[in-house]
# Entry
Amino acid sequence: MQGVRRDEYHDGHAAFEECADRLPPPKGRDVTGFLLRRLINYVALCLIATFFAYSAAALTFNPLARYQMRNPPPPPEVIENLRQELRLDEPIPLRFLHWGAGVLQGDFGETITGQPITMELWSRVGVSLRLLLIGTTLGIVLGVALGALGAIRQYRPSDYAGTLFSFVVLSTPVFLLGILLQFAAIKFNDAAGTTVLYFTGETTAGFQGGFGAALLDRLQHLILPTIAIAFTQIALYSRYQRSAMLDVLGSDFLRTAQAKGLTRTRALFKHGLRTALIPMATLFAFGFGLLITGSVFVEEVFAWYGMGEWFVRGVQVEDVNIVATVTLFVAVLILFSGWLSDVLYAALDPRIRL
Amino acid sequence: MRRTEDVLAPAGSTGDRGPVLEVDGLEVSFPSEQGRVQAVRDLSYEVRAGEVLGIVGESGSGKSVSSLAVMGLLPEQAKITGSIRFRGTELLGKPDTELSRIRGRRIAMIFQDPLSALTPVYTVGHQVAEALLVHGGGRVSKRAADRRAVELLDLVGIPNAAARARSYPHEFSGGMRQRAVIAIAIANDPDLIIADEPSTALDVTVQAQVMEVLAKAKEVTGAAIVMITHDLGVVAGIADRVMVTYAGRAVETGDVDELYTRPRMPYTIGLLGSVPRVDTGQRQPLVPIEGQPPSMVDLPPGCPFAPRCPMEIDACHDAEPALARVDGAGVDGAGVDGATGHAAACIRSSEIVAAGTSAAELFGASSAHHTADPDSRDRRPEMLRADGLVKRYPVTKGAVIRRRVGTVHAVDGISFDIRSGETLGLVGESGCGKTTTLMQILELGAPMGGRVEVLGRDIAGLSRGERKALRRDLQVVFQDPMASLDPRLPVSATIAEPMAAHGCSAEHIRRRTAELLDLVGLRPEHASRYPAQFSGGQRQRIGIARALALEPQLLVLDEPVDDVFSGPQHPYTQALLSAVPVPDPAVERTRERIILSGDMPSPADPPSGCRFRTRCQLFTSLPADRRQRCIDEEPPREAARVDGTPRADHEVACHYARVHQVL
# Structure
């Protein structure tokens, strides 16, 4: 769907390129409307994605099985009660509507064990977002820097080193990367003689201490999983940024910038990198989507109770509401980053400001 | 930033007329897979203050590389030796940070392709102001730079400069972008401007405008100019001296008048003959120089031009001739002073008596022009007829609901016919609808308005099968030879493709491919090579071979060559012809040139009446009562009248059409 949208811009643009030169300068006011229209589309897409996840989960899961298989089996009334409570006899669209109506009021329903989902949701969102946002930001910034440097220093040792790093990280499964990091952390802690890096949980259980100490404790827990997330992102973006930058390196406008008196380095950053960032805007959104899948493993490996770990547990205990809630969260996140990439694109490239 | 090197002294402090730039024994080579490419070999020249030096040669002759060496903009792997002195200071070997203080301030450069020369993400005003800020050393405020940028844009002829400074490059036409690049070049009042084919990528009318702006820039800054071009016509009017380069070396140099009237090197004579002449008033064949420039890896001994030279003798292959004085003023071969005198690198230069040796004689051009006999026109079958052809594009706007806010009148009622054996030229500036017309015909779909007949059949009612069959007889050669060939297909596959698509046998394809290669002047071994290994001219030949593969009845050529005609009656035609440069300094300096102002009117909002009137040089000279007719009435296309009698084969759409000799 992203691809189609890009083409839409460009076809329209190309058809009028000859004439556009002579049309009056475009105004910026249509951008808001354009982004608003995108947003409405995205709400619909979220709805569809969640409905499919809900239906698939509701069709395959049998939450009563674990009760029926108990020994001795619970009385049939209990099972019947549960069936009523979970609305298992109603058609799926109706169940979805019921759940959806609750969501609109901020109530994501209950788990099959009767816990309210909403409360757990926010704590888990906090845990996941902390990891994802810091990891992504680091990944984007360092990935762009590594890629741009690789392009500028093409075929030099530093470029080969960056390439090697990317390929090794990209071909290592995330869970293996996590375990390798844990292994490295043990060695590091041994060398330091004290525990500097923690690799289980997001905070030390039963930790007592002031605000500063608590912050430090969380930071020590955060480092390893963040590295795991950032590494894959750096590896991915640096490859794309490198080739985008290489495209720009030979361009005439870079030569013009140097001819007017900018040093090569300054021209490369102000004119080269700025232009080479444009195609990356789309990738950041896609990368974020991929990342959420990756974070499932990272959370499992480092025992973080985030959204990814929750999804795995939701499937294990055959809980439709958890699966639907996590799916909705992921959909919102992906579409929001897609929307953000549109904003970014419009901000970066004056040619598409409609 | 406040250094007191002499190169950083403000321009004009050195009052002498001494050389601004001295290039001495410059050699540039690049590594390549085949070996080192010697792009520039032993090149020496100098430019004095206020002087214009034209450097002329085919692509690959080393002219661009030598000027990039002056700017210090060659890639790192280039090996540069010799000497480049700017106002006495050696530039070679200086680090980038030092060179960057000279670039843009003392030496400015204008590049070939204005469409890609500006950074797409910054406004034009910002990019002009940047040139001032980067050399301002903190003394120039951003606001002052912005204000000066607007002044500069105004100076180079950007209308409404204050508002246009806030536009982005993509909102500018090619001509306007080149003006902006010139504004950047003159921003710091440089001592030397290097212009690398500044008008080559532009329409002939815009080309004339840009040359005017350059002349103005020279006047304003008093800078010396090095003008690089492949077209001897372009520099004829502006240059003081000309240097012709071939295979990385200067092969002839001299004063502009001397060199054009008495060229002493066969290559120069060939270049002069390959420029179309609109001033001679008669059909004259263009004289091609056969073959290609040599590969710059492992040049054989002897004159590098010998393989293409009509005057080649055995002695030519013995040693490469040195640049030697030919005007008798100095001792031959010794101490040629690049600044003065006429020198040529040819062992037979004394035999060339320029007065009697025209390019056509020397290169033995066979006229390829077969013009169809106008008398038999009615009897010949009609190949293509367009009647009131219309193509419009909607202009849409709106975010949630797209609504149509206007119409681009790309083609608005064009009519013509071509009969068997004829060549029809569709001439105009870019954006005037030439290509749209051709694409509309090639599409073989029902036009939006009007009627198209190909080989006597109305294309509106064709079935799929009929359309495919008709395509066989209708072939096209596209404008851009670089982009119209698949880079991953060898030449033989490219040429074979149309035949395979129309079900020819493998045996036929093999035979025909060899035939076609020979026909367009390519060698059989070229068949297995890829487009990247060919020059632009050779790629265009491949495109022509592909178009001819099916022996079409109608061939459509989208701007593969410049075309020229004479006897113009419409002011637009006159302006187009007037803008074509002539390779004769005397004519160029004295001719009265019609310079069209501005760009084409927006096709989304064409002017009333005559569409050309907003830029028409005749319109402005008319009294008000006669002008009104141009504003109210769209002129019909009628038979042109010569001395009162209408001509059947010449039509013109102007209320006040009259013959105006542009030369």
The two ends of chain B are 53 Å apart (CA to CA). The CA atoms of residues 111 and 117 of chain B lie 7 Å apart. The longest strand of chain B covers residues 403-419. Chain B has a mean pLDDT of 81.
